[in-house]
What does this fold into?
Amino acid sequence: MNDRSTLERREFLKTTAVGLMAGSAAGLLTGNLALGQNSPAPPSPTQDQGESSGFNPLAEKGMPLEQQARTWRELTELEYDKQTVHPYTRCRIITMNGIEVAAAIFKHNMARHFDNPIVRERLALTRRIEQQQQKRVNGLVPANEHTLETTIGYEQVAVDLTAWLAQNEPDPHVKAALDFALLEDFDHLYRYANVLDMRRNGYMRPEMIVGRLTEIMPGRPTPVEHCHPLDSVRRWVDFSKASPQTLMNIMTIVAAEKQTMNFYMNVQNRAEDKVLRGLYNEIGLIEEQHVTHYESLMDPTCPLLKCAVMHELHECYMYYSFAEQEVDPVVKRLWEVNLDMEIGHLHDAVAMYKDFAKKDPAEFLPSSLPKPILFQSNIDYVRQILAEQVALTTKHTEYVNVAELPQDYRYFAWRSSVNGDWVPAGVAISNHIAQQGEDYRFAVAEHPVPAYRDRTSPSVDYPQQA
Ligand SMILES: [Fe+2]
Ligand SMILES: [Fe+2]
Ligand SMILES: [Fe+2]
Ligand SMILES: [Fe+2]
It folds into this structure.
């Protein structure tokens, strides 16, 4: 696996031009609509249905459930080499681990809401398989990959996954949510990278982990990302009117952000020094904010039996997408096998829907999956959004330029109450400057925001206050 990964990575890097993505223009959203948080977002009149992959998992037989159990040996046999794995193979592994965790946790939650023993038993069966898939995927990460190195992978996922989704999202309300949080995860990558770059002896350089496919420099500074909790809830999307691409995009980003939130919830006590511990806490609270932000886009009226079908369809979509693009043949084979399993789960969820909701899921299932999700370099797109939207914050359900907020708005009081007199996101950069004379970056050009070009003082505020 490792030799082939190295070879294919070289091939991939040869063919990957920096700034591959064209990127559509994203306007600043400064409106403050009077709609309540319990109202769905109005569907866009220009909303299209997006491109189709032409793949319909329901037209495939899939792996029968009784053939899906795997042995401990099978769950434990594969690990990648952290030095040679393709950065986007690592990203796909992190993402699919999050999708499988989401599948298992969703089925636990769903089971608590059904007193029907057949539904509870059927959920127990496929949930056990989801757990096996999760162990096999998460187990691909080797023990010598330090938690902080894995963290760089998590934030690369958050940058390049979000950037792809934003560029392929037909609903402007959902696209705005993606662009908003994109700049925050982009900054997290920079903060963690500065801590990692101060370490030597066995630790990888941050730009080697991201394969120079993602830039590492300030985004919207983490210390100003802390919105008041009441300003972190968006208007929800009516799933009965949303395009298949929008449905898949929302399910993907919610699962990925939730995985990042869970990861930081667990690893913050693995950090050896106080600054890194504090940084995991600080960024972990932003991931909580991101999960609230994205999860609030989900349709709260979607019945659980329908959600169960959508979850399996989404897992099919993710494995189908990743099997198509995977450069490591061993990992590609795993994606293919898991896709076959998910098709089996989907048939079971559809049968459960017919049996217990007494309706035909053809009413809401698309005839084919949308365009496959893709990990690729998004350097130009991220730069464009940085230049246009770095000064945004939130007010109630909407986005506003921070300069438009009155000084007594709750955002400022909340931000001060959590930042106090010690802000790890700032200290992490100051420490690097003290050790090496400047901050750590990997950038292909000067920063698109002039206020963030100075590498000898940490960026901790909005540009106009910097
Ligand atoms: Fe699964
Ligand atoms: Fe993040
Ligand atoms: Fe995030
Ligand atoms: Fe599944």
